Amino acid sequence: MNRFSSERWEAARRRVVDQAFQQVPYYREQWAVAGRVLEEPVPVASADLTAHLFRLFPLGRPWLPDRAPSPWLGEPAMLASALREAGALSRVLPVLEARREMVDWRALGRLGPRYAALLSSRADVVDEERRRLLNLPAVELATIANRVVVVGTSEDLAEVVPALPKTADVLPVVRGTAAQIVGGDAVEIAGRRPAVRLAHDPRLGDFAATAPSCGRPHLLWRRYHAGSRDSALLITALRRRPVLCSVVPEDSAGVTVGRCPEHGTAILTGP
């Protein structure tokens, strides 16, 4: 899908749902529990997905934890897509990400910008000295580049940004829940109020971003479909392993899907 079309968007979601019912144990079992063929997957809270992780992969392509990292760690391409939508992606501007788990990424894609992780104090490490040692590549990257994008929750950014070199010009990108990004909660990082915001869920990843030209939270519609049922926001990942259908993101009560009057693509809206 190169240009947004509601019909093609819905057709893409339908293909994922059909595959889920045919090949993925978690969704196949919903038919057995219901005792009938279901047209739509049963909505599931994002927080409940972790307990079903192994059953969220197609039978022919299971997740093998001894050969692949946890799928909840995310992927470089996913972060790159969110930053691109937000107008914060540049090949020459390194990206630092405040997170709780270390990853071995060095760039966001083959032609993407350089990347380094910054472990927050909530990361599970032996001690503070070990955390500083693991964060050294990110600090050195900020020192060399002088200008960097730093992604994370407002709490994590408030902690890691002051630890970067004072000479580094930091562009903060704040992650929040769907309700937070729609509500436009005021935050201030390193003396500035970030205009770049990402709607994030621990299992879904970054699924919406504020567009620089209109400031509205645009869905990453090439990667996610969004709709609602019984007043709940439902997200289906269109290009993701594991297979995630009809997921209710954390803190999304009252959030619905609309259409941007300026761009004509899907956005998150509030009451």
Short description:
With 271 residues, the chain is α/β, with parallel strands linked by helices. The chain has helices at residues 6-23, 25-34, 76-85, 128-145, 154-160, 178-183; strands spanning 44-45, 95-99, 115-119, 147-153, 169-176, 196-201, 205-210, 217-219, 224-229, 232-237, 247-248, 256-259, 266-269. Strand 12 (256-259) and strand 13 (266-269) form a beta hairpin.
Note the topology.
Blueprint: H1 6-23, H2 25-34, E1 44-45, H3 76-85, E2 95-99, E3 115-119, H4 128-145, E4 147-153, H5 154-160, E5 169-176, H6 178-183, E6 196-201, E7 205-210, E8 217-219, E9 224-229, E10 232-237, E11 247-248, E12 256-259, E13 266-269
Parallel strand pairs: 1-11, 2-3, 2-4, 4-5, 5-6
Antiparallel strand pairs: 6-7, 7-8, 9-10, 12-13
Helix pairs in contact: 1-2
Explain this structure to me?
The structure is a single chain. This protein is α/β, with parallel strands linked by helices. The strands form four sheets. A seven-stranded mixed sheet has the order 3-2-4-5-6-7-8, sandwiched between helices. A two-stranded parallel ribbon has the order 1-11. It has a two-stranded antiparallel ribbon with strand order 9-10. It has helices at residues 6-23, 25-34, 76-85, 128-145, 154-160, 178-183, and strands spanning 44-45, 95-99, 115-119, 147-153, 169-176, 196-201, 205-210, 217-219, 224-229, 232-237, 247-248, 256-259, 266-269. The longest helix is centred in the N-terminal third of the chain and has 18 residues, at 6-23.
